[in-house]
Amino acid sequence: MNQADEKHEICADPSLGWHVIRVRANAERQVTRSLSSKDIEVFLPVQKRAGPNRRAVAETPLFPGYVFASFDSRFTLPVVACPGVVHILCRGNVPETVDPAEIFALRTVASKARTLLPHPTLQWGEKIRIRQGPLTDVEGIVLRDEGGPRLVVSISLLQRSVVAEVDREWLERAMPATAACGTFYD
User: Fold this and answer.
1) How far apart are the first and last CA of the chain?
2) I need a surface site. Which of 93, 102, 116, 138 has the fewest CB within 10 A?
């Protein structure tokens, strides 16, 4: 098996599982190095964006504040003792495992894609805020998401609703409504 194949192997030891580790802000690389030095397999997916001169590629964590690690969930002390680790994501007191197929898919895409950017999952009826473009700071509700680059959003204006098709990367989840200008209520 060559080095590239080893890199994408899901998990050689069946007693090991992939886990999500919450880390301090901007400590993803530090935790990755620290866990790797303890012979714990770590995966830090990064966003790849072309730099201003189109030759350099800027890399930032795809999931800021999180890294993935493969370890036996019965032995968590070496993981939580690493500088920068906040906690392991758990269900109750049991570390939650990530489906190996999801890790494999994420690793494959991360290694092959020239550009890798997060793609928010938005649900029908979810409140969103437009953070870019001509409708910046307008809030609306997701009406349709067919998984493509654009969403259909309902925007309430003057007690009437209009529907706009908006680029996905312009959207973010809306914060809970407050009594401020520009917010609307159902």
Assistant:
1) 58
2) 93
How far is it, in rounded angstroms, from Cα 92 to Cα 69?
Answer: 19
How many Å separate Cα 135 from the centre of its chain? Answer: 25
* 11 and 29 together in one domain: yes
Bridge partners, residue 69, by sequence: 19, 42
CATH number for the domain that contains residue 148: 2.30.30.30
Quick count: other Cβ atoms within 10 Å of Cβ 144? 12
3-state secondary structure of 63: coil
CATH number, residue 52: 3.30.70.940
Say what the pTM is: 0.61
Instruction: Assess whether pLDDT exceeds 90 at residue 77.
Output: yes
Secondary structure class of 13 (helix, strand, coil): coil
The residue from 88, 112, 136 where one domain ends is: 112
> What's the mean per-residue pLDDT of the chain?
76
CA separation for the pair 104, 114 (Å, rounded): 18
Number of C-beta neighbours around residue 86 at 10 A: 15
* Token pair for 168: 């996905």
